[in-house]
Amino acid sequence: MTLDLDRKKVVKNNWRVTKVRGKSALRIRIPGGHMSAKHFDLIRQIAENYGNGTVHITTRQGFELPEIPYEKIPEVNRMLYPLLQDLELAIGVQIDKPENGYPAAGTRNVAACIGNRVCPFANFDTTVLAKKIEKEIYPNDLHVKIAVTGCPNDCIKARMHDYGVIGVAEPVYDYERCIGCQACVKNCKKKVTGALAMHNGKVVRDERLCIGCGECVLQCPTSAWTRNPEKYFNLTIMGRTGKKNPRIGELFVQWATADVVVAIIKNTYKYAEKYIDKTLVKEHIGYIVDRTGYQVFRDAVLDGIELNPKARVAKHIQWGGHFYASDIFMTDQSAK
Amino acid sequence: MGKSLSHNEFNVLLGALAKDYNIYAPARFEKQGRFSDTDIIRYRQVSQVEEIVWQAKSTYSPKEVVMPVTQTLFYFTQTEYREPETDTRPCLVFLRACDINGFASLDKIYLENGGTEDIYYKRLREKVKFILIECHTSFDNCFCVSMGANTTDNYSMAVRFGEENIQLELKDEQLAGYLDNIGQGNDFKPQFIQENKIKVNVPSVAEMPDWIYNDQMWKQYDHRCIACGRCNTTCVTCSCYTALDVLYDDNCQVGERRRVWASCHIDGFTDMAGGHGFRKENGARMRFKVFHKIYDFNKRFGKHMCVGCGRCDDNCPEYISYSNCINILNDRLKEGEKASV
User: Fold this and answer.
1) What is the pLDDT, as a whole number, of residue A328?
2) What is the ipTM of this complex?
3) What whole-number distance in Å separates Cα of residue B70 and Cα of residue A181?
4) Which of A22, A123, A155, B127 could bridge to A167 as Cys pair (CB 3.0-4.6 Å)?
């Protein structure tokens, strides 16, 4: 029988329309990029029995299983239940009919670096926060990309996302415990921003230069430097790749709590709903912000949110990035 | 005299003792570890048994009670000086057998070395009474048995902590009054660890041969050691400090002289006028420390400085094992110079 598909429904179901006629590809979300190894059994089973026996690891920390026939979609969706149960329903994501597979594809998988389950540099458990964000924003059709990273090293490249959540630590200094070894000062100067200096055998921190990476705590041999147990995050916005003005994300809110970050991200959907250009198939959030301007975006997403006292918000953002349109100033040699 | 106390009764005892003593014990400092969401255990004043971490080895040693990291010796103006007020209340310190033996090493350096007593140390030290924490099991990296530091009778009270109740032995008659109407009498005596997983063979040589100072064995530490000094700062017996005069920012006619811990692994330890420094290589620093801990200190005082608490190995971020280094040294000495590459 000839295939007669509703392409948009297929895509919304997290299946892809591929270049191979008659064959789709299943996309599996792994919120926070961390899952029980037991799920590999199911992924392997689907790939080998329905697909071409291969699995692609996506840039967003999901799996993509190529060459599954479109007519097998309902069957494979039913098989996905244990994955949806463990990775989505268990963290509180609302899915009305999980037997039908993924309910939306627009808001992408929330990616995360490995965080402090493993990494010595990470300031928090990135997967836990990624899942908390996933619970609040999925399922949703708006095209938003979010990544969560454990420290300003930003290994997940959060600054290339619409929202980049960067875990920072407020260093707390115990003057009495410091032996003046200068390990933190030298390291900060060489590897970070030079926020630390020696004075009278002790260390002075310049709060304006400190980016909250936590390196001083890692260096300190007496635990004179510790992290404030309160967790803080820097939220960067509207980083992107793509064909139109790719750019790195800029700092929006500094020293925010997790609750503030999650509330801002949640608010973004209301803002987008109001300003999105519906003549486009799927307008990315960053281009909506380009159109409305930063201040309109800022006021909308901060609406109703009580910021934690330490949080600071950007008054203005100097957007950068690459403009291909600058090519219009280039002329061919033949042109006079 | 022995007693068995419930945790509640023990808290009553601590309450009574706290009227006359500052009580120090290893306590958990949540989320203050080197890595995020990790804890450290270090000494502070406690008032409840629930605050005392007896199930694990402390990250930092109890030497902090008598050797503050930063200690102001005196304040000075143009023509006068005065010493800071110090807390005169006596102290009770909960600590393990190795650490009690560690205090004996500190005492040698601060009270017997060169025939001079260090008054700043002595003032704090003479206030201290020990409460032995009995070790249930040997922890990771412990080698107290090899160092003969697994046992001690130098304590006022010994305590066996348990989930249900607490056994104690009282040796110091000055503390007897606090126990009069509390707990069940018994004949409890603490047990001591008789074997560690880590065994260290301390070389027994009267004199280290010259060739061992330049032996190849030290070279590996040139690149492995990062000179962070954690082996020194967590060690119960490391006692080095450096003194400096601090002139106050707003008036440089007044200031204070203070001493701060120093570490033989950290840059600057051997710096001298004219920019000279002995031990530039980290391997040389390792050699200096190892010899001091298990050789030259012993030559002077008839007792090894090291007590085998193993905190240096617990805390080395580069996984350098000091205990294994002693064993390598012992093997090298047995092989002799000819085997030296």
Assistant:
1) 62
2) 0.96
3) 13
4) A123
